[in-house]
C-alpha cells in the first residue's frame, strides 16, 4: 500500500507549485471539454495514512488474538529462546525512525541542507533492520526451529514476516523520497516525506509491540 | 416527469401492492399458525421449554410482522400520489423515543428470558448417576461407545484408530477397562434417566441433531463436549449431522432409540454377549 | 464557474486512448461502472449456480443440465454451495452496492470531482477483478471447486484433499482469492472514508449528507476494520494447508484411517476470526441498500426522511454492534455458554436500531404522495423484505431457540431474505433510479415493473416455505434428502421452491435485457433532474462530465431531503439552491 500512496504523491502539489496535477485520464468522453480535476487536499493524504495504519493494526490485532487464544489451548506449545539479535534489530529500527525524523525536520529550512544524507542514513538503517531479521531467522533455522516446528515458532515467523513485508513497503517509500530529493519535497509541501515518516514511525512502534508480545507471551 | 400521468397509474399500483402485502401477510401467518411443516413433538423437558420460548418469540415477531407489513400496505394505499403536495415533516422525536424504548424493552427482555432456558441446557450441574455415552463423529458415520458393566471407558490411542476394522475410537483392548467397552453404530438410551453424551470427532466438525430432543451440538475435533438431557418418552428417532462435513454430509445419520429400562438393559446385555463371543 | 485562464492552466492535450479511458481509468465513474458490471456478471454466475442446486434438490436422481447423463454428485452440489455463497457475498453484495454505486455517486453527492486517491481506486477494482478470476479458476482445476462452504470451516478446509474432493488446489485458490479480495476492499474502504472526510463541498456538513453517503461511509469503516482480520485468518489457514503449521488443525486427526500430521490447533479459532469479519460483512452488504432505499423512499414519496438523525444514529449503532455479535453464529459450536449469553443479548439489541429504521421508513411514507416508479417499488419491497428477514433473526439470536433451528433451512431463509434479497432490492431500486444519470437513458419502466412483480412474489414464494422447512428440521447443505428418512416429507416443498426459483431466476433475464437494451435504445434522459431529486448528482448533466461539476465548485445550503417545503416554488429544494430563492433548511 505505501508504494501506491507514493504514486499519488506527485498529484498533490496543493497550491505549492505552479502546476496543477494531471488528472485528466479516463472519463465519459462524448467530446465535451475535459477539465482537469482539482487536486486532492493535503489533509486527505493524512486521513488516508491514518486509515491505512488502522487497517494494518487490525490485521496484527487479529494475529495477536489468534496468538493468545492458540497459546491457551492444547499442551503442545514449546517456548523457545528468542535470538538476542532481535533486540539489536529493535535498536536499529528505532534509530532509523529517529534519523528519518531528523531528516524530515531539516526540510523546514530553505534550503534543506543535509536532508539527503540523513534521510538516506535512516533508509540504510531500515535495510539493516531487515537484514538483521533475516539473520535472526537463520539463527533459529540453524537450531532446527522452522515455521511448522511448533505453534510458538509458527507465530514468531508469521509476525516477523508480516512485519517485514510492511517494512519492505516502507523502504520503497523511503527510497522514493530519497531519490526525488529535498527540492522536490519542498515544492510539494513535504507531502511524501511526512507520510513516509509517519508510516515508518508506526512500523517502529508496531515492532516494539510485537516483540513485547512475543517475549512476554512466550 | 409530468405529474398528471402518474396519478392515474398510482391508484392501480397502490392497490395491487397493498393487496399483495396483505395477502402475503395473511398467507404467511396462516402457514405459521397451522404449523404446515413443524418439528415433531419433543421428548425432553428442556424441549418443552425451548418450544415455549420459541412460541413467545413467534408471538412477538408475529405481532411486529403483521403490524409492519399491514402498516406498509396501508401507507402505500393511503398516501399514493393524488396530485397534492406531501405533508412536510422531519419526524417526531416523541414517537422516535417511544418506539425505541418499546422495541428495546421487548427485544432485550425476550433475549434475557431466553438465557434461563440456555442455562438449563448448558450450565446445569452434571447428574452423578447419568448414563454416559461417547459419541464420535467421522466422515460419514456416527459411532457410540458404552462403558460396559465396569462403568469405565478404556484407554484409546490414535494409532489404533481403524474404522475399517471396527475400531473408530482407537480402543486399546489391552486395557482392562477397555475390554467391555461396547462400540455400536446406533444410539440407544433408557427413558427417564439423565443422559450425558460426550461428543467428539476424529476428523472434521460434525453436529449432533435430533429433532425430538430440540438439541444441537457440534462435535469438534480436539474437544470433548458434553450434552446432557433426559428423554421422557420412548420411541425410535433419527440422529443427523448438521455441520457440513464433506461429500457424504447428507447421508451421515444414525438410528436413535429411547427404550424402557428393561429393554435398554437387555440390549446392553445382548451387545456385551456379542462382544465377548466375538472379541 | 472557473475563470477561462484557470481552466487553460489545467487542460492538457486531448484523450489518451481507449485503454486509459475505459479500462485502466482512474475516473471514479468509470470505476463504479466497472464494479457494477463485474457484479452483474458475478450475480448471473451465482444465480445459475443456485438454480442448478435447486434442480438437484427437487429431482435428486435426474440428470442436471451440464452435469452429464447421471444425477449430480453430492460433491458437485457442495462445490456449487460454496461457490454460490462466496461469489454472491463477495463479488455481488460487497461489490455492487458499495464499490459500484458508492464509487460512482459518493464523490458526486458530496460535491467532489473524484475520490481522494484515484490511482488506489483503480488498483482496488483491478485487484477485485483478479480475485474474481482466481475464484472462478477454482472450478477448472483438478478436483474442482472447494466443498467446504463459504465459511470454509477448519479442519475441513485446512487439511487438503484427504478430507474430500475440491479441498486440494480448489480450496487453496479460494483462500488466495479471498486474500486478494481483502486487499482490494481495504484499498476501497480507505478511499471512501478519506473522500467523505476531506472532500465534501462547502456547506455539506455531516448532518446534511444524503443517507446514501452515510451508509457508504459507515460501510467503509466496517470494511476497513473487518477485512484485515479476514486477511490474517486467511493467511493462517493458507499456512496450515501449505506449510504444515497447526493454527486451526488439532492433533490426532484420522481421515479414513490415515492420520494427518498436525497438533493442537483450534477449529473454533478459525470460526472466531472468520465471524469477527463475517458478521460485519453482513452489514457491509445491507447498509448501502438501507441508504439507497431511504433515499428513494424520500424522493418518491416527496417527503423529507422521517427522523434523519435517528436514521444516521441507527446505522452507526448497527455498525458498532455489528462488531460485538459474531458469536451468535457459534451457539452450537462448543463455545463457552457464558459468552453465548453475552453475544445473544447484544444481538437482540441490534434489533432496536433495525426497528427504528423500519418505523422511520414507514413514517417517511406516511403523509407522502407516493410515485410508484420501478425504483420506488423496489424500495418499498426492500422495506417489506427487511422486516420479514430481520424478524427471523430474533429466533436465531436466542441460543435456546437457535438450538433446533441452527444450520437448518430457517437460517438459509433468514440470511437470504435480509442480506441477499433485501440488499439486491436496494441495488435494483438504485439501478432504476440512477441509470439515467449514469448512462443518459432511462430503463424501460414497463419491463421494470414486470421484473419487480415477478421478483417480489417469487422471492417470497421461495423463502417463506424455507422458514417452515427449517421448523421441520431440514438441515442445510444437504445435497439430497434421500438418506435421512424424515426428509422424504420435504420432497414436495423442495420441488415447489425449485419451480418458484426457476421462474424468479428467469425473470432476471427481463432485467438483463432491459439493462442492455436501454443502454442503446432506452428513452433519452434529457432533463438533468428527471425524478425531481434534491441531491447533487441531479444538478449536473447525464452522464456527468469528466470532472463532475464542470469546473464549478458546488456549495450546499440545504439538508438532503427537502421535499414539499411549504412556500417553496417547487416540491423539492436542491441541496445547492442558493438561499435567495428559498430559506436554508435542514441544518
The helix content of chain A is: 55-70%
Strand content of chain A: under 5%
- Provide the structure class of chain A: mainly alpha
Shape label of chain A = elongated
Counting DSSP H or I runs of 4 or more residues, the number of helices of chain C is 16
Binned, the helix content of chain C reads 55-70%
Form type of chain C? globular
Average pLDDT of chain A, rounded to a whole number, is 85
Uncertain runs of chain A: 1-31
- Rg on CA atoms of chain A, Å: 21 Å
Strand tally of chain C: 2
Please report which band the strand proportion of chain C falls in: under 5%, 5-15%, 15-25%, 25-35%, 35-45% or over 45%.
under 5%
Structural class of chain C: mainly alpha
Name the descriptors.
heterotrimer; A: 218 residues; mainly alpha; elongated; disordered N terminus; B: 279 residues; alpha+beta; five-stranded mixed β-sheet; 10 strands
Write a brief caption for the model:
With 279 residues, chain B is α+β, with helices and mostly antiparallel strands. Chain B has helices spanning 3-33, 45-78, 93-122, 261-277, and strands at 131-138, 141-146, 182-184, 187-190, 194-201, 206-210, 215-219, 225-230, 235-241, 253-259.
Q: Would you mind describing this structure in some detail?
A:
Chain A is built from 6 helices and no strands. Chain A has helices at 2-9, 42-71, 85-106, 115-142, 151-187, 191-216. Chain A is elongated and about 65 Å long. By secondary structure, chain B is α+β, with helices and mostly antiparallel strands. Chain B contains 4 helices and 10 strands; from the N terminus they run H-H-H-E-E-E-E-E-E-E-E-E-E-H. Chain B is elongated, with a radius of gyration of 28 Å. Helix content of chain C is 61%, strand content 1%. Chain C has helices at 4-10, 18-23, 28-58, 74-93, 95-109, 118-137, 169-198, 211-242, 267-301, 308-321, 337-365, 374-396, 399-405, 409-439, 445-472, 491-521; strands at residues 254-255, 258-259. In chain C, strands 1-2 form a two-stranded antiparallel ribbon. The longest helix of chain C is centred in the middle third of the chain and has 35 residues, at 267-301. Chain C starts with a helix and ends in a 66-residue tail after the last helix. Chains in contact: A-C, B-C. The interface between B and C is large, with 109 and 122 residues.
Amino acid at each position: 500500500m505505501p508504494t501506491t500512496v507514493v504514486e499519488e504523491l506527485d498529484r498533490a502539489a496543493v497550491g505549492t507549485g505552479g502546476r496543477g496535477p494531471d488528472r485528466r485520464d479516463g472519463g465519459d468522453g462524448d467530446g465535451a471539454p475535459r477539465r482537469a480535476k482539482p487536486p486532492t487536499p493535503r489533509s486527505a493524504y493524512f486521513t488516508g495514512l491514518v486509515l491505512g495504519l488502522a487497517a494494518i493494526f487490525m490485521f496484527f490485532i487479529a494475529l495477536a488474538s489468534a496468538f493468545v487464544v492458540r497459546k491457551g489451548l492444547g499442551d503442545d506449545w514449546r517456548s523457545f529462546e528468542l535470538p538476542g539479535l532481535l533486540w539489536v534489530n529493535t535498536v536499529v529500527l528505532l534509530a532509523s525512525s529517529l534519523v528519518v525524523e531528523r531528516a524530515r525536520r531539516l526540510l523546514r529550512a530553505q534550503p534543506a541542507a543535509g536532508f539527503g544524507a540523513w534521510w538516506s542514513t535512516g533508509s540504510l538503517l531500515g535495510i539493516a533492520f531487515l537484514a538483521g531479521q533475516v539473520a535472526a531467522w537463520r539463527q533459529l533455522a540453524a537450531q532446527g526451529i522452522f515455521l511448522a516446528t511448533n505453534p510458538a515458532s509458527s507465530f514468531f515467523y508469521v509476525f516477523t514476516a508480516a512485519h517485514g513485508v510492511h517494512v519492505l513497503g516502507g523502504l520503497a517509500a523511503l527510497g522514493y523520497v530519497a531519490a526525488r530529493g529535498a527540492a522536490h519535497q519542498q515544492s510539494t509541501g513535504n507531502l511524501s516525506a511526512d507520510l513516509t515518516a509517519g508510516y515508518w514511525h508506526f512500523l517502529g512502534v508496531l515492532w516494539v509491540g510485537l516483540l513485547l508480545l512475543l517475549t512476554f507471551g512466550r | 416527469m409530468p405529474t398528471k400521468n402518474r396519478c392515474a397509474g398510482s391508484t392501480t399500483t397502490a392497490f395491487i401492492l397493498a393487496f399483495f402485502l396483505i395477502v402475503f401477510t395473511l398467507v404467511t401467518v396462516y402457514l405459521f399458525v397451522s404449523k404446515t411443516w413443524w418439528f415433531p413433538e419433543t421428548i425432553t423437558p428442556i424441549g418443552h421449554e425451548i418450544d415455549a420460548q420459541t412460541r413467545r418469540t413467534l408471538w412477538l415477531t408475529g405481532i411486529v410482522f403483521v403490524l409492519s407489513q399491514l402498516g406498509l400496505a396501508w401507507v402505500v394505499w393511503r398516501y399514493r400520489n393524488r396530485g397534492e403536495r406531501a405533508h412536510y415533516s422531519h419526524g417526531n422525536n416523541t414517537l422516535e423515543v417511544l418506539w425505541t424504548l418499546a422495541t428495546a424493552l421487548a427485544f432485550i427482555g425476550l433475549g434475557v428470558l431466553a438465557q434461563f432456558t440456555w442455562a438449563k441446557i448448558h450450565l446445569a450441574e452434571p447428574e452423578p448417576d447419568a448414563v454416559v455415552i461417547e459419541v464420535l463423529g467421522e466422515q460419514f458415520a456416527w459411532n457410540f461407545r458404552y462403558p460396559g458393566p465396569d462403568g469405565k471407558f478404556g484407554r484409546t490411542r490414535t494409532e489404533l484408530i481403524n474404522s475399517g476394522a471396527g475400531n473408530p475410537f482407537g480402543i486399546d483392548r489391552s486395557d482392562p477397562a477397555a475390554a467391555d467397552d461396547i462400540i455400536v453404530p446406533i444410539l440407544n438410551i433408557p427413558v427417564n434417566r439423565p443422559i450425558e453424551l460426550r461428543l467428539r470427532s476424529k476428523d472434521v466438525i460434525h453436529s449432533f441433531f435430533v429433532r425430538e430432543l430440540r438439541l444441537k451440538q457440534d462435535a469438534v475435533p480436539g474437544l470433548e463436549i458434553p450434552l446432557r438431557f433426559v428423554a421422557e418418552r420412548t420411541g425410535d428417532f433419527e440422529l443427523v449431522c448438521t455441520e457440513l462435513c464433506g461429500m457424504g454430509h447428507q447421508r451421515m445419520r444414525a438410528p436413535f432409540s429411547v427404550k424402557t429400562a428393561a429393554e435398554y438393559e437387555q440390549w446392553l446385555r445382548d451387545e456385551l454377549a456379542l462382544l465377548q463371543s466375538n472379541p | 464557474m472557473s475563470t477561462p485562464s484557470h481552466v487553460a492552466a489545467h487542460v492538457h492535450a486531448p484523450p489518451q486512448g481507449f485503454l486509459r479511458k475505459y479500462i485502466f481509468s482512474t475516473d471514479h465513474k468509470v470505476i463504479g461502472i466497472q464494479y457494477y458490471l463485474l457484479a452483474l456478471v458475478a450475480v448471473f454466475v451465482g444465480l445459475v449456480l443456485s438454480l442448478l442446486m435447486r434442480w438437484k434438490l427437487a429431482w435428486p436422481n435426474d440428470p442436471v443440465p451440464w452435469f452429464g447423463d447421471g444425477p449430480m454428485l453430492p460433491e458437485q452440489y457442495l462445490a456449487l454451495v460454496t461457490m454460490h455463497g462466496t461469489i454472491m457475498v463477495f463479488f455481488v453484495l460487497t461489490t455492487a452496492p458499495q464499490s459500484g454505486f458508492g464509487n460512482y455517486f459518493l464523490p458526486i453527492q458530496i460535491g467532489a470531482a473524484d475520490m481522494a486517491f484515484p490511482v488506489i481506486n483503480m488498483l482496488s477494482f483491478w485487484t477485485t477483478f483478479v480475485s474474481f478470476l482466481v475464484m472462478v479458476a477454482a472450478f477448472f482445476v483438478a478436483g474442482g471447486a472447494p466443498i467446504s462452504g463459504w465459511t470454509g470451516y477448519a479442519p475441513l478446509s485446512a487439511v487438503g484433499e484427504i478430507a474430500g474432493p475440491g479441498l486440494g488446489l480448489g480450496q487453496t485458490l479460494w483462500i488466495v482469492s479471498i486474500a486478494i479480495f481483502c486487499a482490494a476492499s481495504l484499498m476501497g474502504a480507505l478511499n471512501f472514508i478519506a473522500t467523505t472526510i476531506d472532500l465534501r463541498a462547502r456547506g455539506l456538513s455531516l448532518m446534511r449528507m444524503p443517507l446514501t453517503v452515510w451508509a457508504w461511509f459507515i460501510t467503509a469503516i466496517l470494511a476497513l476494520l473487518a477485512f484485515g482480520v479476514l486477511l490474517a485468518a486467511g493467511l493462517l489457514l493458507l499456512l496450515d494447508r501449505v506449510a504444515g503449521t497447526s493454527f486451526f488443525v488439532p492433533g490426532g486427526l484420522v481421515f479414513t484411517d490415515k492420520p494427518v500430521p498436525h497438533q493442537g490447533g483450534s477449529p473454533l479459532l478459525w470460526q472466531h476470526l472468520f465471524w469477527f469479519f463475517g458478521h460485519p460483512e453482513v452489514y457491509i452488504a445491507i447498509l448501502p441498500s438501507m441508504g439507497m432505499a431511504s433515499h428513494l423512499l424520500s424522493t418518491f414519496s416527496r417527503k423529507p426522511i422521517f427522523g434523519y438523525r435517528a436514521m444516521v444514529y441507527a446505522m452507526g449503532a448497527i455498525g458498532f454492534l455489528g462488531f460485538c455479535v459474531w458469536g451468535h453464529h457459534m451457539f452450537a459450536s462448543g463455545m463457552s455458554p457464558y459468552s453465548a449469553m453475552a453475544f445473544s443479548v447484544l444481538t437482540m439489541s441490534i434489533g432496536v436500531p433495525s426497528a427504528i429504521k423500519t418505523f422511520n421508513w414507514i413514517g417517511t411514507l406516511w403523509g407522502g404522495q407516493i410515485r410508484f416508479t420501478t425504483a420506488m417499488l423496489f424500495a418499498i419491497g426492500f422495506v417489506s423484505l427487511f422486516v420479514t428477514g430481520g424478524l427471523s433473526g430474533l429466533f436465531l439470536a436466542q441460543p435456546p431457540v437457535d438450538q433446533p433451528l441452527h444450520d437448518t433451512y430457517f437460517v438459509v431463509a433468514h440470511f437470504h431474505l435480509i442480506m441477499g434479497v433485501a440488499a439486491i432490492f436496494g441495488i435494483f431500486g438504485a439501478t432504476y433510479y440512477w441509470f439515467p444519470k449514469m448512462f443518459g437513458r432511462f430503463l424501460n419502466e414497463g419491463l421494470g415493473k414486470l421484473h419487480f412483480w415477478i421478483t417480489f412474489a417469487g422471492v417470497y414464494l421461495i423463502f417463506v416455505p424455507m422458514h417452515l422447512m427449517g421448523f421441520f428440521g431440514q438441515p442445510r447443505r444437504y445435497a439430497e434428502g434421500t438418506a435421512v428418512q424424515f426428509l422424504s416429507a420435504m420432497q414436495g416443498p423442495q420441488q415447489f421452491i425449485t419451480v418458484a426459483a426457476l421462474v424468479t431466476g428467469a425473470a432476471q433475464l427481463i432485467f438483463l435485457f432491459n439493462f442492455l437494451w436501454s443502454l442503446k435504445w432506452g428513452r433519452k434522459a434529457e432533463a438533468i433532474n428527471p425524478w425531481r431529486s434534491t441531491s447533487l448528482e441531479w444538478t449536473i448533466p447525464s452522464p456527468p462530465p469528466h470532472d463532475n461539476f464542470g469546473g464549478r465548485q458546488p456549495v450546499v445550503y440545504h439538508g438532503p431531503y427537502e421535499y414539499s417545503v411549504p412556500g417553496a416554488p417547487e416540491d423539492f429544494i436542491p441541496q445547492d439552491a442558493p438561499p435567495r430563492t428559498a430559506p436554508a433548511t435542514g441544518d
